[in-house]
Structures are given as structure tokens and as C-alpha cells.
UniProtKB/TrEMBL annotation:
Pfam families: Peripla_BP_5. InterPro entries: AmiC_PBP1 (IPR039570), Leu_Ile_Val-bd (IPR000709), Peripla_BP_I (IPR028082). Transmembrane segments: none annotated. This is Branched-chain amino acid transport system substrate-binding protein.
């Protein structure tokens, strides 16, 4: 965001004063903002991100904190409402004096917080897959960009099922943009066609999908691309099953239907549908299994690990490592240490990209099995560099197993 010179000077001065006053408190603790919804339409998935964040903070503190200083989460519940994200972020910055905020799920929430972190030169760590086409000096993006999930999903679904796709989404920016990208991918690379595109309100109930699933039954696409988010996801998949639509013949493919939404809808409804993500709970690696054991020990069984949980977890460790070296959470001091930094995450090695502020991730495609977990049916041979503006997005150069 550009500010007029005088406003910028005022902001800089206020910034300097605030930094001198705070961030590291009198007792040597380091306050960090944590902004995930515990109520509202995306509360289930965001609660998992909250617990991933608190889990990482606890691990860091148990290991002696950052240079002996404890991380203290200052946490608010923005109730899945973008205007509340704005208010809470403002409070975190201006009253609680945090330099760093971990938070946001919906792109509409990120877009509400973005001008504030830019205006006050703070840092937002965003742990959610999103539509791409964004860059900010004040954001680190640790969820998948479209070249790390949409491209692979388009390739996988069109090569196995066909390229006539019906799109169903929640009514906000991520679904519009994600559908535009999916539409381009299937048409440019497979000669495919969008045979339907429908949007429902964010708090859609099962009835809101009745007419849509009837239309899908009539049109019989090769697959459905769902960008429905949050608690409505279970209602869509349930309406789909009730209409007699079968994943064996017309599967639903998604980027937002994680283990959390699968648990909400139940395995009998979810089995056979597909999701693309860099992380699934089912990854059979020592790094993932030991992380899950440590998490379960500390946080019990209340949270279902998923890709947004994992990104929320590893981004706090990336922050802590950078701050250990930088000695400060000021954006200018911290950023050079963050860019290019790596972490051995549960999904495999992740690296923050210097030029885009996004993260090198490990794309995978999973199919829901009878236990409500994802069988990994495809994974990239190596981590994929983020390309949020889709400068290159060829299909077909991915390793399929
Ligand atoms: C999203 O809104 N980025 C899922």
C-alpha cells in the first residue's frame, strides 16, 4: 500500500516509538499475534491452525525459547469475519505492539489484514493455500500457490477422468480466482471445458446445494472442482452423496477439503474423493510420524492434522530460527534471515523463496480412504518452487506413480 509522504513519515515515527517501547516485554518475553477463528464458518480448520501454531510455540519455549526469551501468543478470535480480522490485527499492532502475526485462513481475511501490516511495517505469516497473484514485503506465504496444487490436480484429474469440469464454490475471492485458474488449465492444456460454475453463500446449508447437485446429475461432468470452504463443505459432499452421485464415476476434486472437513462429513460420504495438498496426515515418514506423536501427546486428540495445520506449525519454527540469528523481530532485520531459510517439516524440506516470499513445497494428491485418511496417489519427485503469478504452468512434467 502506498502512503502519502507525510502520512508515511508519521507512520515511520510511530513505528519507531512503538518498537522501542515493546515487542520484547519488560520480562524479556516476545509477544506474537495469533489470529485464527475459533468461531464461525471456518472455525474447524482455523482451530487446527491455531493448535499447530501453539504446538510450535510450546516446542520452541520448551527448548529454551529464543535466546532464552519465551514466546507469548497474544490471541484473538476474529469469528471468520474479515472486518473483525482487521480490527483484531489493528489491536495486535497498535495496542499489543506485536511485530509478527500468525494467522488468517480465507483470502478475504488476509486481504483485510494486508494493508495494516504494510502500513505499520509488521510481518504476517500466512499458512493457507490460496489463489496466488499476490506479493507483499510484509507477508511470508507458507501455504500452496496454484503451481503447487492446482496445476497438479488439473493434470491428474483430466488425465484420469476427462476434462469436462463443473465448479462449485463459496462466494468470495479465493473460489472465483481459483476457478479461473482451473478453467484456464483444463482448457489450455487438455482442450477441456467448464460445464458449470456455481457459487453458494459462505454459510451454505445442505439445502443450498440441492439444485446444484441436480444440475450436476443432469450435466454429468467428468469431475467436479470444489472450492467450497469451511463448515459448508460437509453439506456439499452430503448433498452430493444423497443425490446418488458416486465418486467412482464423477469424483470431487478440491484444494480445501482436508482431513478436518472429511472428519466433519464422515468417511462414508468422503471416501473416493480427491484433494491436492503438500501435506497429508497419512505421510509415512519418520519426520511426520514423530511430529504427530509429539503433537498428540501435548494437544490430545482434539485436532485433526492437515495441510493448513502443518504450515501453521512449521512457519513458527521458521520464524524462531530466523529470529535467533537476527536477534530482533523487526521486519527489516528479520526478513533477510527468513528468505532462503529451510526447515525439515512433516511434509519434507520446505524453503522460503527469496524472490516471491512464498515457500518451496512438496505437492501431493490424496484420495480419501475408508479410515477417513488420504491415500497418497501421486507425489512430486522433488519440492516445487513457488510461482504465484503462474509465469510457467505446463502440465505433464510431473512424476506420476
Ligand atoms: C482461501 O481462501 N485461501 C482458502
Amino acid at each position: 500500500m502506498r502512503l502519502l509522504a507525510s502520512t508515511q513519515a508519521h507512520a515511520n515515527q510511530a513505528n519507531t516509538e512503538q518498537r522501542a517501547r515493546t515487542t520484547v516485554t519488560d520480562t524479556g518475553m516476545i509477544r506474537v499475534g495469533v489470529l485464527f477463528s475459533e468461531t464461525g464458518i471456518t472455525s474447524a480448520i482455523e482451530s487446527s491452525q491455531l493448535n499447530g501454531t501453539l504446538f510450535a510455540i510450546q516446542e520452541i519455549n520448551d527448548a529454551g525459547g529464543i535466546g532464552g526469551r519465551e514466546l507469548v501468543p497474544i490471541r484473538y478470535d476474529p469469528a471468520s469475519d474479515p472486518s473483525r480480522y482487521r480490527t483484531c490485527a489493528e489491536r495486535l499492532i497498535l495496542t499489543d505492539d506485536v511485530q509478527v502475526i500468525f494467522g488468517c485462513y480465507m483470502s478475504s481475511a488476509r486481504k483485510a489484514v494486508l494493508p495494516l501490516v504494510e502500513r505499520w511495517n509488521r510481518l504476517l505469516f500466512y499458512a493457507t493455500l490460496y489463489e496466488g497473484f499476490e506479493y507483499s514485503e510484509n507477508v511470508i506465504y507458507t501455504g500452496a500457490a496454484p503451481n503447487q496444487n492446482s496445476v497438479q490436480l488439473a493434470d491428474f484429474m483430466t488425465s484420469r477422468f476427462g476434462a469436462r469440469v463443473y465448479m462449485v464454490g463459496s462466494n468470495y475471492i479465493y473460489p472465483y480466482e481459483s476457478n479461473r485458474i482451473m478453467s484456464d488449465l483444463v482448457s489450455q492444456y487438455r482442450g477441456g471445458v467448464k460445464v458449470g460454475e456455481r457459487y453458494v453463500r459462505l454459510d451454505a446449508a445442505e439445502d443450498d446445494f440441492t439444485e446444484i447437485v441436480a444440475d450436476i446429475r443432469k450435466i454429468r461432468p467428468d469431475f467436479v472442482f470444489s472450492t467450497v470452504v469451511g463448515n459448508s463443505t460437509q453439506h456439499f459432499y452430503r448433498a452430493y452423496a444423497r443425490a446418488g452421485l458416486d465418486p467412482a464415476s464423477i469424483p470431487i476434486a478440491s484444494l480445501t477439503t482436508s482431513e478436518v472437513e472429511v472428519a466433519q462429513m464422515g468417511t462414508d460420504i468422503a471416501e473416493g474423493h480427491y484433494t491436492a495438498a503438500p501435506y497429508f496426515r497419512s505421510i509415512d515418514s519418520p519426520a511426520n510420524q514423530t511430529c504427530l506423536e509429539r503433537f498428540t501427546e501435548k494437544f490430545g486428540y482434539g485436532t485433526t492434522p492437515n495441510a493448513s495445520w502443518e504450515a501453521a506449525y512449521f512457519q513458527v519454527h521458521l520464524f524462531a530460527r530466523a529470529m535467533r540469528v537476527a536477534g530482533s523481530a523487526d521486519t527489516e532485520t528479520l526478513m533477510p534471515e527468513l528468505l532462503g531459510s529451510e526447515f525439515d517439516a512433516p511434509q519434507g524440506c520446505v524453503t522460503i523463496d527469496r524472490s516471491t516470499h512464498h515457500t518451496h513445497l512438496n505437492p501431493r494428491i490424496g484420495r480419501v480412504n475408508r479410515e477417513g485418511q488420504f491415500d497418497i496417489v501421486w507425489e512430486a519427485a522433488a519440492s516445487v518452487r513457488p510461482d504465484p503469478y503462474l509465469v510457467t504452468h505446463t502440465l505433464g512434467d510431473w512424476v506420476v506413480r
